[in-house]
């Protein structure tokens, strides 16, 4: 199917927002559990430590299932995969809403991760078939922007619903969002062709290109750098001038606003300047922000500004990286993007584990230094990935 120019097809723009609504629902589902852990633990009479593993179950399941799903459903049209994936996601959240026990809730989290891991890479890959190349960056920022807005606004709202109406109401809200996405796709999503050969050997040959591997490693190192500190941001703020101030929501709101700005700026920047400078700028700026956090966190205003810049940079590298991967692996874009999702979640999980090991030895307020050091590795890796002749789109 030939690309559809965003300005030429009246269905393209609303369809992108529908796909973004799907990632918005997935973003809430992935991260809101942390905000209602206490309610879940009390209702299901489960220790809080065990309940906290629901977040890990979703993240690990997503990381493992994303490439498996992309390979297993390779012969299906994108429309069929997207509709099936969102159906599974909605059904899983219905099960979460009605779960009578922790075991059933944990199973529903695995099924929700399967739906999410099948949906997001296909939604991202579909952008190449829905818009003209010069608008791909902005289109990606709309689709992936759902995840960003979920982080900034959806998760706090979902947490409020859970604490006000009960944790089951939070999952019910996700069900409604998923059903709206399904309805929108049924009405607006055209019949997108299957991507071609689905032999595993063909797909693996596409991702063994050095440029693809180095790009995936940028995602891993940048996410590891970020979440080494972000996983413990409340502890970092508690240990400084924030301890006696009710400013955590304000500080995190600065980060959330920055995330939304960074995501959409990445789309425009990628279309205007190419993916290479946006990736380098984002990774470098995030590293500097983490360094600044280690020295400025005791000042509430300065720390909020650092979190704003960090939010902008931390959500600015994903769109151009996906843009680059789609350019490098045109035939197997969904499979390559699914691997990018996997390494992203591995970076998030690895950052939490590494940060935990660090704070068992060193003060939490120094986590920014560790994040900065890893960020330098991410930047060096990005420079390595961009050696040689500049390609179209970079």
Summarize the structure in words.
The chain crosses the membrane at residues 15-34, 54-74, 81-100, 106-127, 139-161, 167-192, 212-233, 245-266, 278-296, 302-321, 342-361, 367-386. Residues 15-393 form the Major facilitator superfamily (MFS) profile domain. It is a multi-pass membrane protein. This protein has helices at 12-31, 37-44, 48-51, 53-72, 78-98, 102-130, 136-165, 167-188, 200-207, 210-230, 233-238, 248-273, 275-296, 300-314, 318-328, 333-359, 367-385. It has two domains: 12-188, Up-down Bundle (Growth Hormone, Chain: A), CATH 1.20.1250; 200-385, Growth Hormone, Chain: A. The chain is globular. The two termini are 24 Å apart. By secondary structure, it is mainly alpha-helical. It is 78% helix and 0% strand.
Fraction of residues in helices? Answer: over 70%
And the CATH topology of the largest domain?
Answer: Growth Hormone, Chain: A
Give the class from helix and strand content and strand pairing: mainly alpha
- The coarse silhouette is globular
Beta-strand residue percentage = under 5%
CATH superfamily of the largest domain: MFS general substrate transporter like domains
User: Spans of 5+ residues with little confidence (pLDDT < 50)?
Assistant: 1-8
Number of helices: 17
* CATH architect. name of the largest domain: Up-down Bundle
Q: How far is the N terminus from the C terminus?
A: 24 Å
Number of strands: 0
Radius of gyration: 20 Å
Largest sheet: none
Membrane topology: Multi-pass membrane protein
Subcellular location: Cell membrane
Keywords: Cell membrane, Membrane, Transmembrane, Transmembrane helix
Pfam families: MFS_1
